[in-house]
Specification:
It contains seven helices and no strands. The chain is mainly α. It has two domains: 102 residues, Cytochrome c-like domain (Cytochrome Bc1 Complex, Chain D, domain 2, Orthogonal Bundle); 48 residues, no CATH class. The longest helix has 38 residues. The termini are far apart. The structure holds heme C (HEC).
Length: 159
């Protein structure tokens, strides 16, 4: 019985791995051919207008990509004329693969080019947070992942 279990586990891995490797390869291809122009090959964008996406949480990146897409005829949750065009032809699998790819890259932090804006940000960071922001901080910061503490279940159990 144990041998059978081990064998079936090995078979499952053998079937799943090539598909996952293919998806990862496809995502890397899209990253190199499409996204690199603005976000650089490893996600460490050089132009300040394009955010650095290297080393971000994959869940966050995935959510942003989904949010750039118009859903069911509605306006996208996150509006960006540039990024809406970029995600238009991406499938769910592509977006997941891209999020995993960029999430796995190392962020190379850069010094702020706008010194005034950086100083204003530092000042804000040093001041105590407003009460509203402290009430449920995880709601404000966490991406909405099913099952995560910050997310609302899409279907509520019968009460
Ligand atoms: C023509 C330039 C351009 C290209 C090409 C491009 N992006 Fe973007 N990307 C942007 C800009 C500009 C923003 C900021 C959008 C905003 O917030 O208004 C952005 C934002 C993002 C964000 C959100 C980052 C954050 O910190 O919230 C992700 C994720 C992203 N892009 C991924 C991609 C991926 C994946 C591709 C390739 C399929 C891609 N981008 C191609 C310009 C580009």
């Amino acid at each position: 019985m144990r041998q059978l279990l081990v064998l079936s586990a090995v078979c499952t891995i053998a079937v799943v791995l090539p598909a996952a490797a293919q998806d990862a390869g496809k995502a890397q291809g899209i990253a190199a051919q499409v996204c690199a122009a603005c976000h650089a090959p490893d996600g460490n964008s050089i132009a300040p207008a394009n955010p650095k996406i290297a080393g971000q949480f994959p869940e966050y990146l995935h959510k942003q990509l989904r949010d750039f897409k118009p859903q069911a005829g509605k306006k996208p949750a996150r509006e960006s004329a540039v990024m809406m065009g970029m995600v238009a032809n991406l499938s769910e699998v592509d977006m997941k693969g891209l999020a995993t790819y960029y999430g796995g890259q190392s962020l190379r932090p850069a010094a702020a080019s706008d010194k005034e804006l950086a100083a204003a940000g530092q000042k804000l960071r040093a001041s105590p947070p407003a009460p509203a922001a402290t009430a449920r901080p995880e709601r404000a910061c966490r991406p909405s992942i099913p099952g995560s503490p910050g997310s609302t279940p899409s279907t509520s159990p019968p009460s």
